[in-house]
């Protein structure tokens, strides 16, 4: 009896613990619930719609459950044994209701979801009264465990950081030099996969200037946690000034240097006044195995990235 009493006491404390845990989570920044662009806003609206819709279903179900428990309880006033008839052979009305309602629920969730998904496959439309702008094309290529951002229009390339203009759609053309990964900038929108031998497109846009976090959201081995980057969203004028500085001051990205960067491992932020697109295109069938052919032996071994990084920091 004592053990049962203690168990019930601890179970009674669970709701209080849950409340305290959730109150602590309130201090954390929920980036996906603080959209900074039209794509993220569309996804946020869909999330909120779905949550309220499902909350409504939960309220109705629990209200009906409570009603049934109270109305048909065994010790209700005026209950007679003759009221209970266990021989029920079906009720067409009830069966139609519990079949039709789930269909309606699925339809009401599917229509906005499918509509939003199709809309996200196109560049965001300008707000009312604003001029339509051509998307800025950025090739986002991953290699274990780093990011290459190529700007063909500006003929520059960055490693592990990204600059974009605000109020202009960005067309990311995604591919991978080796393992499968995924580009994700939570403040601007959802993720999409980078794969070798093919290209996927992701449209994003920043409406507010700032520095946003980006990362690989698909686990791809030892350096996964460190495969992050910063997104600098700035005015069109500041972006053009930055791109011009990179063009004038940064070294060219030679084929030999690019091959060195492709080796499995971690690297710092870098800038170049040309792109690797002149030498290799990882989204094509011909170049999909480019990195594996060069570094096949290294991919067979565990690289101990963090031990190497620690040793270099003491030197």
UniProtKB/TrEMBL annotation:
Top-level EC class: oxidoreductase
Topology in the lipid bilayer: Multi-pass membrane protein
Keyword Cell membrane belongs to the record: yes
GO MF terms, alphabetically ordered: copper ion binding; cytochrome bo3 ubiquinol oxidase activity; cytochrome-c oxidase activity; oxidoreductase activity, acting on diphenols and related substances as donors, oxygen as acceptor
E.C. numbers: 1.10.3.-
GO terms, biological process: ATP synthesis coupled electron transport
Key words of the record: Cell membrane, Electron transport, Membrane, Oxidoreductase, Respiratory chain, Signal, Transmembrane, Transmembrane helix, Transport
Subcellular localization(s) per the UniProt record: Cell membrane
Gene Ontology CC terms: plasma membrane
Superkingdom field: Bacteria
Domain Cytochrome oxidase subunit II transmembrane region profile: 24-124
Catalytic reactions on record: 2 a quinol + O2 = 2 a quinone + 2 H2O
NCBIfam families: QOXA (TIGR01432)
Family per similarity comment: Belongs to the cytochrome c oxidase subunit 2 family.
Functional note: Catalyzes quinol oxidation with the concomitant reduction of oxygen to water. Subunit II transfers the electrons from a quinol to the binuclear center of the catalytic subunit I.
Protein name: Quinol oxidase subunit 2
Native source organism of the sequence: Halobacillus trueperi
Gene name, Swiss-Prot/TrEMBL: qoxA
